[in-house]
Amino acid sequence: IELTSLSLRSNKQRSGGCLHLRSSLFECEGAQCLHPPLLFVSSESKLQNGGALTLSVLCSLYVKEHSLSLSLKHTMDVSMGCPFLLPILFMAILAGSTAANVAKLDVYPKILKKSGDPVKIKWSGISNPCALDWLGVYSPATSSDENYIGYVFLSSSPTWNSGSGSIVLPLLNLRSSYQFRIFNWNESEINNGTRRDDMGNPLPGTRHLLATSEEISFVNYNDPSQIHLAFGAKDDEMRVMFITRDGMRSSVRYGLKEDELGETVEAPATTYTRPDMCDSPANSDIGWRDPGYIHDGLMKNLKPGKKYYYK
User: Fold this and answer.
1) Domain 104-218 belongs to what architecture?
2) Strand pairing partners for 120?
3) pTM greater than the 0.70 cutoff
């Protein structure tokens, strides 16, 4: 729940050498999952002769037909000349009350051996699950919340409405780390300003972040990927192309037997950069991904009608 406005009203009166403060803090943004959409916090405090301020807060959160009540008490020494301490105490207590139910997101394994290996993603502690809660996929892991490269609704897990669940996803080696994040999203946030995909469907909002996973990495970011074969200029030639993160020296070995790759050719590497692209979003900060280095090896003197192995 995200408070959108805070209202603090106080009524001060002196009675019997004591200072009484009564205040109310309320108003929150309505959400589809809350019925009624209300967060109410009330407090009463008394400044006694010893100068000790005791603040008791009762916080009630109504979720569907169930209610959750939390009572906190905080005591500290203050002077009667420090009225600004009251809102500070409110902020501290509100922060503490939300720490009791913190969503948790775990991913394993955290280091993958090769491209396409699966990871299991588990979450728990979502106190008010919604059908539109979603999991964002981020690569590199330092990407901002809005720049996810994919997403999955938590409702794809059969146990999502319990606040816990798990899914399995394969991850491609994009030559950078991954991270997962869980967000709350509801239909009331969809409007004309909502981002949409190419089909016109609204893209999930990132306003309410619930949990963040640790980074997931690969053993070797230079593992050759996207291997392609193509015809050469001559009938006895075949071209092998692949990608690595770095522009290292590489080669292609090939032969008629899998355990005897007697022929070797160099595979020089080249790449392109963001300024080489024609227009936005390809040449902008958002949407650009380093393509790595493209290696090109030309196998020659191939015999027709024969099966070749290459590496």
Assistant:
1) Sandwich (2.60)
2) 108, 168
3) no
